[in-house]
Amino acid sequence: MKQTTPLLEMRGITKRFGPLTAVDGVDLDVRAGEVHALLGENGAGKSTLMNCLFGLQQPDAGEIRIEGTPVRVDGPRAALRHGIGMVHQHFKLVPSLTVAENVFLGHERMRAFGFLDRAAQRARVAELSERYGIGVDPDAKVKDLSVGAQQRVEIIRALSEDVRLLVLDEPTAVLTPQETERLFETLRGFVAAGLGVVLISHHLSEVCRIADRVTVLRHGRRVAAERVADVDEHRLAELIVGKDLPRQTKEWGRGTPGAPKLEVRGLHVRDSRGVELIKGLDLTVHAGEIVGIAGVAGNGQTELVEAIAGIRRPGAGSIRVAGVEVAGRRPRAARVAGLAHVPEDRNTRGLSVWSPVTDNIVVGHLDDRSLGRPLLKPARVRRLAERLIERFDVRVAHPGVFAKRLSGGNAQKMVLARELSREPEVIVCCEPVRGLDIAATEFVHRQLVEHRDRGAAVLLVSTELPEILSLADRILVMFTGEVVGEFAGDRPSEFEVGRLMLGMSA
User: Fold this and answer.
1) Residue 394 lies in a domain
2) What is the rounded distance in angstroms from the CA atom of residue 313 to the CA atom of residue 247?
3) Do residues 308 and 264 make contact, with C-beta atoms less than 8 angstroms apart?
C-alpha cells in the first residue's frame, strides 16, 4: 500500500535575523523514495530553511513533522535521532583521520572496558559502502582522498546514524562530471531503498535529471511546488528569478589581445606534501583576453593560482605581473603590481568570516587615500562599502553583519566586490561562480568580460566546462601539472576538451 503520510512536513517555517526575514512562512513536504529539489537565488532562504530542519538554527514560528508526528529539533544530535542527516557544501572532515574514524567521530563504537572497537567501525563503513554502492576504503586517510571521495565519506557518516532523510547542499559544486554521475547513481540507490533526499542545487539540468519534485523559494517565500516532469529548465529559471528569461544561451563576444600582462615561465611548484605538481609550466595572458584553464580538480590548478598570487612559494621559475617579477614574494607584491585574486575557497582564503561585510570589502582598498590618513574615516569607509554592496548586488541586511551570516553566493559576490572594484590589470579567478545562482552567475561573467574589454588580462580556472567554453578566448588544458593542450580560434566541444582533461590524446 502506498504511503500517504509524507516522511517530512515543514509547515509555516519562519526565521528572522533582526529586521531581516530570511524564511517567511514556508511549507515543504518530502516523501519517502523521492529526490526533492530545493531551488532559489542566493539569499532566497534555502540553507536557512535546511539549517532549521537540522537544528543548526531554531525557527521563530512553524512546525516540523516526521511521518506525521510533530518533533522539536533543538540541535544536530536531535536531528540525527529523528533520522535527518545533512551533508554540507563545505565538508567537515578531519584530514589526518581515516575514513572510519571520521564516520564515527563523536559516536564511536566501543568494546568492553571502554576500548574503541575499530573493527566494528570499519565493518559498518564497508557494509554501508557496499549497500549503497558508494565505494570508499575505511582505512584510507581523508587527506589522501579526492574531493568526490571526501563527499562520499560525508554521506556515509550521515548514513551511519540510520537516517531516513538526507539533505545535500550543492553536492556537485566541486565534482567532476564522472563524480557527479557516480553521486546520482548513489542517490538512485537511496530512493530505491525508501530514503528521502532533499537536494539544494543551482544546476537546473541536474535537477531535471535526478529530482522527482521541486520547491522554489524567492525572497524567503515559497513561490512554487511542482513535479519535475511538468516543468523544464527554462520554466524553473523563471520561477527562481521571478521574471521572463531569454531562452538562448548567453554568448559572450571575443576580446582583442594586447601586450602580455601575466607571464609564467618554467614554473615548478610542490604541494603541501612536498610532491611536485607543477612541472616547468609556461603560460601567457595578454591584456584584453580571457584565458581559461580546464582540468579535473587536483591536477595542479590550485597550486598554480596560489603561486601566482604569492600564497605558495614556487621551487623555480618566473612570474611577472604587468612586467614586475613577483615569484617567491609575498601576496602584497603581486597586488601592488596590479593582480586581483578570487580564490577557490572563499571561506579560508577569500574572507574573514568573523569580520563585518564592511571590513571584508574595504580591506582591499586600504591604500586609497580618500578613506583618510593616517587613520581611516569610518563614514568614508562605510560609504565605499555601501557603494560596492549595491554595485555587486551583495544581499545583506546592513554592512555591519558578519560575513559568516551571508549565503555562499553573497559571500562570493563580496569577494568579487573587493577584488574587481580595484580595476586590476590582471585578474586570476578560481571557480568564481561556484554556489551562485543563474542571475548572479551572469552578473559575474559580465563583470569579467567588461574588465577584459577595458584591458585587463583574465586567467579563469574552473571545473565547469560550459563556463570555460562560454567565456574563454583561449583554453589551456592542465593534466598532471602540465599544459597538455591549447585551443584558440573556434571554440572546441566539451568532448574535445574532456579527452585532454582525462589524459587522452585530442
Assistant:
1) no
2) 46
3) yes
Structurally, the chain folds into a number of domains equal to 2
**Sheet with strand 35-40: strands edge to edge:** 84-87, 165-169, 196-200, 35-40, 213-218, 221-227
Let me know if residue 395 belongs to a domain: no
Q: In this structure, are strands 457-461 and 165-169 parallel, antiparallel, or unpaired?
A: unpaired
Which CATH number is 232's domain given? 3.40.50.300
pLDDT digits (tens, 9 = 90+) for 461-482: 987 788 899 899 999 999 888 8
**Same domain (yes/no): 267, 148:** no
Digit-coded pLDDT (tens) for 245-285: 544 445 678 889 999 999 999 999 987 767 788 989 999 99
Single pTM value for the model = 0.64
- Say if residue 352's pLDDT is above 80: yes
- The set of residues, in sequence order, having a beta carbon less than 8 Å from that of 117 and lying 6+ positions away, is 108, 109, 110, 111
**Which grid cell sits at 60?**
521563530
Quote the DSSP letter at residue 350. Answer: I
Cross-strand pairs, 69: 66
Question: Going by C-beta distance under 8 Å and a sequence separation of 6 or more, which residues neighbour residue 165?
Answer: 7, 8, 30, 66, 83, 84, 85, 195, 196, 197, 198
- The DSSP secondary structure of 245-303, one letter per residue, reads --SSPP-PPPP---SEEEEEEEEEEE-TTS-EEEEEEEEEEETTEEEEEE--TTSSHHH
241, 270, 298 — which closes off a domain? 241
Residue 147 lies in a domain: yes
Cβ distance 410 to 346 under 8 Å?
no
Give yes or no for residue 56 having a pLDDT over 70.
yes
Residue in the block written with cell 602584497: 332
Residue 310 and residue 451 in one domain: yes
Q: How confident is the model at residue 378 (pLDDT cuts 50, 70, 90)?
A: confident
Q: Classify residue 150: in a domain, yes or no.
A: yes
Of 212, 241, 270, the residue that ends a domain is 241
* CA separation for the pair 292, 462 (Å, rounded): 7
